[in-house]
Amino acid sequence: xxxxxHSAWQMSFGERAALEGVLAEVKPNVAIxxxxxxxxxxxxxxxxxxxxxxxxxxxxxxxxAEASHVTIHTGxxxxxxxxxxxxxxxxxxxxxxxxVDGDHSSDGVRRDLEDLFNSPAVGTSAILIHDTTNPTxxxxxxxxxxxxxxxVLHVDLDFVPGYMFREERLRHELWGGLGLVLVDSTRLxxxxxxxVQDRYYPAxxxxxxxxxxxxxxxxxxxxxxxxxxxxxxxxxxxxRLIDHIGELESEILRLTSVSAHHEALWRxxxxxxxxxxxEPLRLVAAMTEPLRRVAARRRGRDGDR
Length: 305
What we know:
It contains eleven helices and nine strands. The chain is an alpha/beta fold. The protein folds into two domains: 2-208, Vaccinia Virus protein VP39 (Rossmann fold, 3-Layer(aba) Sandwich); 277-304, no CATH class. Helix 5 packs across helix 6. The radius of gyration is 25 Å and the shape is globular.
């Protein structure tokens, strides 16, 4: 079976099966993939979709990339994706399916999703996001206010939970996981409750806690602490310090992303026509504020008499 035979595909079997199921349900006309890599998911998109656009920083040498209905876009998705979406919107065409698996920085994944949400070409769509368990990716997703887009119908960032690696090369790192976002521009604005799934505990958070417990257990083991420790530095303690540094870097990226988002909102407000039009009113209000305070104090004194 194709989803089990592609050895270079950077998804677990469960993630591959979930992708296959969503594609079979959506049957997309136009599909977008952000992050081509070894082409495992691209092959499945090309099987189901009539037209596929795949974005990556390098041009892949893949047989599927030569298919007539597959277009490879080489370069940063943050510039190429908005251009494609704008062209599709001008043609009054819509994107039915998107796989977000490219820029894994907090700001990068947030920008890719917000570009999709801001486009009229993404109207009735299913969006899958890979590696939602990774702390850096998750920080970018958590910085998105999904409810700001009325067309966002449902968000489940742990649609398929991820995993913690045991193998030494990636030991204790959190990766994998699929998030699902359903978009429907025909829904009534702000209909019903919140759009983000809150029925279950976030799997990424539970895995992060399990990771902390695992690290502590290995650190507290006297045999592991002293086994093969050159210069008096225990391997488990060294790994814990490296992991802690990684967590701090992820938090810095998250706060930077949030700050940039708020700054963009503030600039948009300052440059808006409504803000400039109402400037005289704000000046008048500022000038009359002392008079209002004096009048309020007088009313207070009169009331005490």
